[in-house]
Each structure stands twice: as structure tokens, then as C-alpha cells.
Amino acid sequence: MSFFFKSLSLYFFLTFICASLNAQQVNLNNLFLSENIRFNQLGFYPNAQKIAVITSDSVSKFAIVTVKENRIVFTGILKASTNVALNGKKTLIANFSEFKMPGDYIIYIQNMGYSYQFSIKNDVFAGLAKGSIKAFYYQRASIALPQKYAGQWPRNAGHPDNEVLIHPSAATKEKPFGTIISAPRGWYDAGDYNKYIVNSGITTATLLSLYEDFPSYVKNINLNIPESSNKIPDELDEILWNIRWMLCMQDQEDGGVYNKLTNAFFDGMVMPEITKLPRYVVQKGTSATLDFAAVTAQASRIFKNYDKQLPGLSDSCLNAANKAWEWALKNPNMAYDQNLMNNNYEPKITTGGYGDRNFTDEFIWAAIELYITTKNEKYYNAVNILPDEQMPLPSWNNVRLLGYYSLLRNEVSLKNNQKNDTQTIKSRLLKMANDFIEGSSSTAYQTVMGKTDRDFGWGSNANAANQGIALIQAYQITKDKKYLDHALSNLDYLLGRNATGFSYITGFGSKTPMFPHHRPSAADRVKEPVPGFLVGGPNPGKQDGVVLPSTVADEAYTDSMNSYAANEIAINWNAPLAYLVNAIQALQYESDYSKN
Ligand code: 9MR
Ligand code: 9MR
């Protein structure tokens, strides 16, 4: 055949292909964006489950359409959910897991409109994985954030905290009321500028655990923070900012730890450097002291690997942990009751309480961490590690599982006595994970989060993340992929597959919170809020008195600055988000979600 004929046939062949594809193009010009199409707004790994949920019942088919040429590349039938959502209505499910081609797409639904854009690619959560940890840098007290690291959100230093008053509730013979101590650094707790040991405990431990579970992955995370060029992983550098503060919160005299470093009352919605109110450390407590012991014990074994770069730090942490433990044995029941304290002392303190009355879980956690680090069984034997069969999801006032997770991740180094307990914990954890999974694919949003309205209270989004962490622990001990799939379903929830259609993380997604209850974001005059923060999320409690668009539990959310009960940010909510998204990123190749 001559060259001419060859080209001619190629020409006809191409025309034929183009014609048939052209026929599958959609004209989006007269159509609208529809917020009724709910899915993970960042997107999907090529081989992972891909689900969108449609909050309507009058449509029947969906198509996946390329962003560039509006070409239809996949079509499917919508299926009604088996069960109704918390609002009593069924949803329609678009499952396009079979479609695996990397690219940028929208979902198109005839008679409805098109969705926000999303990507299918390897590493699809890389930006969020970093951003969720970088958020902690933005929470740093006592240091300026220059543009070089803070990008669009630079600010001056606030709260040096090098002259902090001993509050009368914390006075001792050696340190009477008015004594000045120095306790700089640390992360601001949340939308407010105070620093609370109890909440720092679970936060710091969750971030340390990310490192302990995935060290080689975490070592490669570059956060662009002032310490990025040293020889320590950036995540650990960021954690150190808080640990160095925590260490200052221990009274060297007796080992007890102050509950918090705080103003007497909340600041206005101003930048950190504006507020010059006196700062106090208040009353020591059993929760604070045991949480401190657990974190410093865990930190001690992790930083042991960096003894050269941080001489003495690991040993100091362990000494501090042991002294705290001894204090708690002598003071096993010192609750932080802010109202009671305010009856007895001036000035009255009205900032966050984090008051806890039950210390069983804190004793379990601290005993386990000290035991794992030292291998000294006196810690382990001092408490009943398995007092009952309960497996309460971690929260600031319930930290038992933090200890259990540590036992599982350090199992190889345990003695036989503890190995029996570890077996028991394993089977209870799997039961917990199976309970989470059960029925979740019959629900309206096909996520583990939100099966019942009990999932929704102050900081409900952190529940979703902590359920995800429990499922990842189940995956780690079984390598059964269903656990990881369901952990991912909760990340899908947080990023948009939910009853409000918000991706609940500032700066990550198409419809994200613009007005979080976060003082720097409110006061910095930058339009976009500081990025990488998980807001508290749906909470029908309305403790802030702000009117919500709905009383249905999973719809009880508003993107309003005044809504601190649904739209504040907090370090103990960001840490489980950071764990969840980074763990999934770390596991994407071994689980085959992504392929090299
Ligand atoms: O800003 C405070 C927020 O961080 C707390 O979570 C919340 C509940 O303790 O309180 C917020 O402060 C408010 C205070 O309680 C009442 N007056 C208005 C304050 C700012 O909105
Ligand atoms: O997260 C805390 C939540 O569980 C409590 O119900 C609530 C009221 O005590 O306080 C929340 O924590 C806030 C803390 O007290 C002050 N800083 C902001 C925290 C997040 O809203």
C-alpha cells in the first residue's frame, strides 16, 4: 500500500473515533453547579472505592465527565440507599469505583446539573496530609510566623509566656501566689489562645503515634517550618514545640502538673500579639499529670533515636514522666472543678475547663506508656489494665485506647504476661471495628460516621477521624483491606460526602469553612481562613446559642464565626485528622489504592 493510502485510512480511522467521542460530549453551558452531589472534594486514588451521594430522588443516571473537553468517560445508574438518612430521606448512590483513569473530572446528572471538580490520581491527599500537620505550626505561641513559612498568613509573635503567674489555686509554700514562672512555646488550643495540658496530651500523643506507626513515611514529610533543615523529621520538630512547653508545666518541687496556662477570661477576636492580659498557671490535677506522664514517656522512647541531635531530651522526658507518675500515685483523685475553684480563689478563671472526674483511663494510659518505654513492670502492675470490656473511642476525657494502641504497636517488645492482654485487646478492637462497619453500606452516605445521631456532639468531626484511626489499627493487625476501605469512607465524609456538603477542612476542597471560630482567621484581614484546620462540625447542642439551619444531628452545622460549638477549630480535632489522612497516604501503595 502506498503512503498516500495508509495516511488516508488513518485519517478516516481518526475521524471515526473523534465522531463517536464527540457524540459523548456534554454541553455544560446552560447547566448549573449542583450542591446535591456529595463526595470527597479532593478526589480518589485510582483503585479505591469511589462513591458520590445524591440528595434527590428524581434522577436516575450519572456520568463522569472530563473537565477539559466535557467528554463522558463513564456512565452509571443511581441506586437508592437501603436506609434513610437522619433526616428521614433516602439518597441515591453513584458508585464509579470501576472507573480508574487518572484525570480531572466532574459528575454530570441530567435534569440536575454538574458537581464540583475532583481528581483521580496517586497521592491524591498529599496536600492535605501535609496541611493538616502544618496547621500546628500556625497555632504556635511565643513566635512570629514569617511569610517564608506562613505564606499568606504571616503574623507577629503572641503570648511570650515567659512571665506567668502562679494562680492562688496552684500556690505552694515554695511557690506562693504571684510567683513568676516561664512556660513559653506550645500550641494554642483552638480558636482561643490558652494552653491546656489535658487537651495537649491526647493531641501530642496522636501525632507521636503517627510517627511511631509510620516512621519512614513521616521522615519524608517536608513542612517548610523554621526547623526543616535540621536532622530531625519535621513532624517531630513541630511536636517538640509543644513538648518543650509541656515540660515547663511541671512543678519541679513535687512532680505535679498544672492544668493549664491561661488568661482569666477569653480574649476578644484579635490577633495574638494584641492581647496582653496576665497569664496564670492554675491548680495541678490528676488528669493533667497522668496525661503529661503518658506523653513524655512516649516521647522519651521516640526521641531516644535522636539522642545525638537532642542530647538529654529523651532522658529528661523520662524523668519528668516518672516524677509525674509518682505525684499521681500520691494524688489519685484531684479533679479540676473550675466552678469550685472559682468559689475559693481570685481571679476567677472562665476559660476552657477540660474538667474530668474519672481517672481510670488516664492511669491505664500512663502505666502502659511508662511500661513500654522502661520495660519496668511496676508500672504495668500498678493498675488494672483491663478493668472491663469497654473500648471507648479516644477523646480528651477518655484516653484508655491511646494506651491500648501503644501496646499493639509495640507488641514485639512485650513480655508474655502482657501478650495475653494484647490478645484480648486485639479481639476487642476487631469487634469494635466490625461494629463500626456493620450496616454502614446500607446508610444514606455509606460512611461509618453518622450511622446514628449519637455520633454528633461538640467536635463530631473528630469522632469521624478517631473512628478512622480505630479502623486503621484493625487493618494494621489483620491487613484485611475492608478496615482501610471503611477508614477511607470517613475521610470521604470529612471531605464532603455528608449531609451538609461541606468539606470540613479550611482550604481543602471546593466548599469549605470560610468563617471558623479561630481568632487569627477572624482578625488577620486575609480573606481565606488559615488552612488545614478541621472544624468541630455538626452539633445539635447549640451551646453557643447560634441559630442552625437544621435540628437534624448531621445537618446541625453553620459556617459562622460565632458558632464555637460547631465551627471552632481545635488541636485535638486536627491531630486525628492528621493521623487519618497521613496513615492512608502511607498505606496507599501496600493496599493497592495507588500503583507505582
Ligand atoms: O472563644 C471561646 C472558645 O474558644 C470556646 O470554645 C468557647 C466555649 O468555652 O468560648 C468562646 O468564647 C466565648 C465565651 O465563652 C462567651 N463570650 C464570647 C466568647 C467568644 O465568642
Ligand atoms: O472540646 C471541648 C468539648 O468536648 C466540651 O464539651 C467543650 C465545653 O467544655 O469544650 C471544648 O473544648 C474547648 C475548650 O474548652 C476551650 N478551647 C476551645 C475548645 C474547643 O471548642
Please explain how this structure is put together.
The strands form three sheets. Strands 2, 4, 5, 8, 9 and 10 form a six-stranded mixed sheet that branches. Strands 12-11-15-14-13 form a five-stranded mixed sheet. β4 and β5 (72-77) form a beta hairpin. The chain is of the alpha+beta class and 596 residues long. It has helices spanning 3-22, 126-138, 147-150, 197-213, 215-219, 234-248, 286-303, 313-330, 338-344, 360-374, 377-382, 400-409, 416-437, 460-478, 481-494, 519-523, 571-587; strands spanning 37-38, 43-44, 51-54, 61-66, 72-77, 79-80, 92-95, 103-109, 113-114, 118-120, 164-166, 180-181, 195-196, 258-262, 280-284. The protein is built from 17 helices and 15 strands. α13 (416-437) packs across α14, α14 runs antiparallel to α15 (481-494) and α14 runs parallel beside α17 (571-587). It has two domains: 7-120, Sandwich (Immunoglobulin-like); 126-587, Glycosyltransferase (Alpha/alpha barrel), CATH 1.50.10.10. 38% of the residues lie in helices and 9% in strands. The model is unreliable at 1-23 (pLDDT under 50). The site of one ligand 9MR has 11 residues, from loops.
Write the layout of secondary structure elements.
Blueprint: H1 3-22, E1 37-38, E2 43-44, E3 51-54, E4 61-66, E5 72-77, E6 79-80, E7 92-95, E8 103-109, E9 113-114, E10 118-120, H2 126-138, H3 147-150, E11 164-166, E12 180-181, E13 195-196, H4 197-213, H5 215-219, H6 234-248, E14 258-262, E15 280-284, H7 286-303, H8 313-330, H9 338-344, H10 360-374, H11 377-382, H12 400-409, H13 416-437, H14 460-478, H15 481-494, H16 519-523, H17 571-587
Parallel strand pairs: 2-10, 11-15
Antiparallel strand pairs: 1-3, 3-7, 4-5, 4-8, 6-7, 8-9, 8-10, 11-12, 13-14, 14-15
Helix pairs in contact: 2-17, 4-6, 4-7, 4-17, 7-8, 7-10, 8-10, 10-12, 13-14, 14-15, 14-17, 15-17
The chain binds ligand 9MR (2 copies).
